[in-house]
Each structure stands twice: as structure tokens, then as C-alpha cells.
Design brief:
alpha+beta; Cyclic Phosphodiesterase, Chain: A; five-stranded antiparallel β-sheet; 4 helices; 9 strands; globular
Length: 174
Amino acid sequence: MRLFFGIPVCEEVRAFYLETLKPELEEKFIAKFVETENLHITMLFLGEVQKVDFLNEVKENLKAISHFQVTVGGYGYFGRPPRVLFMDVIRGIDDLTVVHDAICRSMRIRDTRFAPHVTLARIKKSPRDIDAVLELMPHKEFSWFVPSVVLYESKLTSKGPIYTVFEEIPVKAL
């Protein structure tokens, strides 16, 4: 199984992406855009996993973490040339890092490359001045409380990945 831990975005982010942002981006980028239902903040990508024998320890470590608020807004990209277009996490980074570190500790993994974001597209060809283009995109901030962390299974298909919830792990309510 191909697995990763993530946090789903709120419905307002999905609606904004589908109705406003994606149509704008499609005019300016040659890219493979993320399906609306697949939008999430990746906490840790595991890749191919034979046994899911780590789940109890992850649950134990996450139940000590209280639910928290995350805010996304603004855009960025990874790579030179740009390869991944994303919506940036602008508040809640410290809380997301605590969750990421708890998952890593549970799995005895050391991952220091954590940069929370919501992937919007895999860029095939970007505009010449990508920074100026992103500055002109519709900007809006979205905040929501994170009630749980999801372990997703990712099945790769010719039409793109299909994510299904393998396990939802609640964090402690206030």
C-alpha cells in the first residue's frame, strides 16, 4: 500500500479552488492540477508500506495533541525550474510541526524537510515571470480547526491518484 499522513482542507478552500483559483491557474500554467477532493496538507509521505504496525503508537502520540487552527493563503512553488505550485500555510505552522514530529517519533523516522503546504498542481511549463503571475492570482485566507489527522492510501491510476481514508485519528478536543 502507498500511504501518507495528511490533513484535509476545509470545504471553503475546496470551493475557492474549484470555482475561482483553478480556472485562473489553468489559463496561465501548463500543469496537472490536483483534483478538488484530493486537496490536503501532507504531514508525512510514507510511500509503499507492507505492514501498518505503527498505527497504535501514532494514535497514542497524537491523542496528547489538542486540536488547533490552521490558516492557508498566498502561493508559492518548489523547484528551479518551478515544478510544484502550492497554497501556503501562513498560520498554525508550529502546531503542524508538533503533529509532524509526533508522527515521525512514532515511526522512528527523522524528517527535517517539513514545509507545510497545499499542493495545487504539478507544473509542466510555467510562465516566464511566475512570481508576478502568482501575485496577480486571487488571494484569500482560509482558517479552520484541525480535528484529526488522516492516514490516506494513495492508488496511482492513469487519470491521477485516488486517495482514500485508511484511518482517521482524532486529536484532543479543547
